[in-house]
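Progress report, Aim 2. The chain analyzed during this reporting quarter is listed below.
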Amino acid sequence: MPVAWRGLGSIFKPRFDWIQVEATTYCNAACFYCPHTAYQDRWANRHLALRTFKKLLPPFTRTRLIHLQGWGEPFLHPDFFIMVALAKEAGCQVGTTTNGMLLDDGKIRRLVESGLDLVAFSLAGVDGANDIRRRGTHLDQVLSVIETLNRTKESLGRAKPAIHIAYMLLRSGLQDLKRLPATFKGLGVSQVVISTLDFVPHRDLAGGTLLPEKTREYDELRAQLEELVEESQRVRLKIHYQLKELGTRRLICPENVQRALFVGADGRVSPCVFANLPVAQATYYARGTEGPYQRLVFGNLDELPLPAIWRQQAYVNFRRSFFTGKLISLCQDCLKM
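Predicted structure tokens for the chain:
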């Protein structure tokens, strides 16, 4: 096939770095900073239909990673392991993020046997503060699950899944950072990915964000994070974080909207998880004021195949807006940018 035609083919059959698939919007926890908790009176709970998930299988063959996680707890979905099997058969790496509360010995063994490549455990502290911030979860239980997962991997002779920690860093938890290496030492955790509160459902949560506005505060936070990275290396633990340069706006979205996307539990396709909250008539807090939240969706898998949605002019224009700097308000307000 001529080179020009191969390039044209990539337009009609796009390749993705990852597709994030929301298995469910149900959750057994009530983290105080999560939109699921903040909007609980108007939240739409649903499982992704397996028939809808199967419509993603052709694009999966051109995708590096499928991550089964959105605004709910993936292990609540009755067909979670079927989804893993289907995605693995399509040739993808497959990962998920969980609060860990539903993983008993049987599920842990099944998880290892499924061939899942990555499992990340969500935490927001290294002591009882985690259990307060993430109501319905328990740090000790999560650490016990991780230990059992490692023993099961060893007994079955498996190297996977890799174990990560998805760590929510709130302003109130800054003092916990130095305890991360000791908390996860010897547990088989390979990476800790530190995130900050990037979507603020209402004004009362604004104090949890980490947006240094003064040079001294920024330098102190950067030094604290770099010291953490160095200390973690001594216990063979990788720490990843993103800290936007003071007084600047990112030109590239960290959610990789040019080569990745998010599929909600209702089949709606969005650029990222923040643009696809299953709520109506909600507000969010940004730039010192509260304004209306509107989902940003470009199509539904039950109506159009994914490549057709990706090619729609509105979606193309959205991706181009990051090169022109004329972003929609939801992206303009996003703390990740």
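DSSP finds 13 helices and 13 strands in the chain. Confidence is low (pLDDT under 50) at residues 1-11. These observations will guide the mutagenesis work planned for the next reporting period.
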